[in-house]
Structure formats: structure tokens, C-alpha cells
Amino acid sequence: MKKQMSNPGIERLKKIYSLYDEAMDHMEGVCQKKCSSCCTCNVTLTTLEAEFLIEALTQREKKELQARINHCFPQKRYIPKMTTNRFARLCVEGKEVPEEENDPSWGKCPLLADDLCVLYEVRPFGCRALMSQVHCSEKGYAQVPPIVLTFNTLFSQVIEHVDENGFFGNLSDMLTLFLSDNTFMRFSDPAGIPDDGRFVFNEKIPVLMIPLEHRERVKSFWKKLSSL
Model-level pTM? Predict the structure, then answer.
């Protein structure tokens, strides 16, 4: 990987990732190296996260990544119909929330090799947020503490808010799009976004989805996030 150029959006994203690591510092989980049950083809990310990932790669690494995705592209995968902030807005407005289909049995993440992520250092938040207090491969499910879910929701909302002019989609679709564009444009112009149902627009935070019992616990982190 190469040293990244200075980019205000990416610098903010890196600070958000660092704050998340701080928030999770004392959370106990059983996740360890080569624990890859959660590494499925259903990973999602924002355009800012995709840009962060792509810009960390050399030209050779970009070509290798494109070849890997082309070879392992999942035909059946989770394609989101809404973002976290759109979900929050629909709930506040009392509108119907669209149904989504998401099945981990559809396959592994194309970035997985020998149960290890080939781009672990620049993985998106959707991957960073996965943790469990039980072994998923043994139990068949993850056991996530409610406070972790609250932190995950908060940080997801903030990342989307920071990338308000971007959009959101499946990792395979997003990286294919970015790798096919030599300038790695930010797609800030809505006209530049493929209108084929694979991507949804990001939105600003309409309301924070923080349960009353967790507000004091996350208060200091929300203050830090707000200052970025």
C-alpha cells in the first residue's frame, strides 16, 4: 500500500475510525485472526470509505484488486435499499421502511483469502463494527452487546453524514465502480451515479438513534464526533 495524499474527507474518516477503536477498547469479544464467519459478500460502504480504500493502493494493487473482484464477483449479494440515516428519517416521519434481503449464505467477501482480509488496514466501517461474544462458526450467529449496537449505529450515522454528497452500496458494486473510473471521481454530481438500483444516496443525520439508557455512555464520543 502507498502513503495516502491529504484529503479532508479521508482525514475525518480516519479520525472517526480512531474514535471507534477508542470506544471499543474495553468491549470484550472472541473475534481473532482468521475468524471470518462474518466476512460475507454482503458488506456495504459509503463512497468516502471506498475512496479511502482505493487511494491507499498502488496501481499494481488496484489491478490485482480489480482482477480479484472480477473473479469472485458475487451474483447474489445484499443490495441496500436505504442508508442508516434514511432509515432514521423514515421512522421519524412514520413512513414505511422498505424490506431488504440479506443472507450470509450467499457467499464470502471477495477480499477474503485464506480466511484473512487482503485489505484489512483500510477495511470499511461495516467490517470494523463486527464483533461477537460467542464464536459465530460454532453458534451460527453473533452475540453483540446492545451498547455495541448503539455505538455502531452512531458511528454509521456520522460516517454517512460526513459523506452526505455521496452514496452507499455493496462493496463489490462500489469497488467495481471506483476501479473502472481512472480519476476516482467522488460522484458528487447525482447525474454521475448509476441509476440501476444498486446504490442509494447518503443523507444527513435527521435524528440520533440512541436508546435512553445508553445516552450517558455515548455522550462524550458524540461530542468528539461533532467536533470533527
Answer: 0.92
